[in-house]
Design a protein that fits this description.
Elements: H1 25-58, H2 79-108, E1 114-121, E2 124-128, E3 134-136, E4 138-142, E5 146-153, E6 158-162, E7 167-171, E8 177-182, E9 187-193, E10 205-211, H3 213-223, H4 229-239, H5 242-246, E11 264-266, E12 272-274, H6 277-285, H7 308-320, H8 325-338
Parallel strand pairs: 1-5, 4-10
Antiparallel strand pairs: 1-2, 2-3, 5-8, 6-7, 6-9, 9-10, 11-12
């Protein structure tokens, strides 16, 4: 196993927990649905088995107490069957609507207080906070804050699972998934990879540490402020020569990216697409997928040249750019050169 992993493995929790702790509001809501489904299934099972047992005993061969003299020759009444089927249809359509609402809520989520990047790698979880603080196999978060996770994989398929939050996302290389949670109880909660990802899959463990807000701020202070994702992304953007084309510093004509995020982009195909994180990511790795109207498809692909961490940083930098920001930077640069 990679020696880098061992020091960060959390202690194994003791005791047997048939139902994991409920550490988020969503966990409680999901459990209510689960218990309702189990209860409904148990009722139907008892009804079916009970009726089979009753009729099997009541009308068994040789039972003279059962009156078989007035059996109808043809089936004429089916109101009972229709009523039962209609009641079951209404009940289970209700369960379907309930489950669909919870499913959609688990993906949409409210506006987050912060976004934390999580990268799965054999066999560890690499975490980076917005201020640049990094962790391995641990995620420290404040209690009662909406946290958005941006999850991706560096190598193979992983699956991010926190049982106490009822939170699970399958993570496929080359894709980016999002998840959110709002922890309601301080404590340490186990983090697992639930997709077989290699020889030491069972050792790919971690924990989510939920802290009071004051304790969380003190923890951040002790870690020391690192380089933010946006500033690191800016350095990568410049180091890989992106600024030369997109900031108008060369003869190559490329679209300006300041103020791009959240804007509608007209494509060469005639379509209009929203410039979200997926669009920016695709433009880096698959530049021919969405060609902006009025521009030639001359941008090279950076697939295989950038790590998942680097891609997240560049995307964060482009997201942070405000309209006209590059014009202001160019003016400052020109003033500095004139002096």
């Amino acid at each position: 196993m990679n020696d880098e992993v061992a020091p960060y493995l959390p202690e194994v929790e003791k005791g047997l927990h048939l139902i994991p702790t409920q550490a988020t509001e969503h966990a409680g809501q999901l459990d209510h649905l689960y218990f309702a489904l189990v209860g409904a299934s148990a009722i139907i099972l008892l009804m079916v088995v009970g009726l089979i047992a009753f009729f099997g005993f009541r009308y068994r061969a040789g039972n003279k107490a059962a009156d078989r003299s007035n059996l109808p020759s043809t089936r004429t009444e089916n109101r009972v069957e229709i009523a039962v089927l209609a009641a079951m249809l209404v009940a289970f359509m209700g369960f379907f609507a309930w489950a669909t609402t919870l499913y959609l809520d688990s993906y949409r989520g409210p506006e987050p207080a912060m976004t934390i990047d999580v990268i799965g790698k054999q066999w560890m979880w690499k975490i980076q906070h917005p201020d640049g603080t990094r962790e391995i196999n641990a995620i420290h978060v404040p209690v009662d804050e909406v946290i958005r996770l941006r999850v991706t994989s560096q190598d193979v398929i992983h699956s991010f699972f926190v049982p106490a939050f009822r939170l699970k996302r399958d993570v496929v290389p080359g894709t980016e998934k999002t998840a959110w949670f709002k922890a309601t109880e301080p404590g340490e909660y186990r983090l697992f990879c639930t997709e077989y990802c290699g020889s030491f899959h069972s050792r790919m463990l971690g924990k989510v540490v939920v802290m009071e807000r004051g304790d969380y701020q003190a923890w951040l202070t002790r870690q020391g402020s690192g380089q933010t994702l946006a500033s690191a992304g800016k350095q990568l953007f410049q180091a890989h020569g992106c600024s030369g084309c997109h900031m108008g510093k060369s003869n190559v004509r490329a679209p300006s990216l300041d103020g791009l995020y959240g804007r509608s982009v007209a494509l060469d195909s005639g379509e209009v697409i929203l410039a979200d994180e997926a669009y920016i990511r695709d433009s880096i790795l698959q530049p021919d997928k969405h060609i902006a109207a009025g521009y030639e498809p001359i941008m090279p692909s950076f697939a295989g040249q950038l790590s998942e961490e680097d891609i997240l940083r560049i995307v964060t930098y482009i997201k942070s750019l405000q309209p006209g920001e590059w014009v202001k930077e160019s003016v400052k640069e020109n003033e500095g050169e004139s002096r």
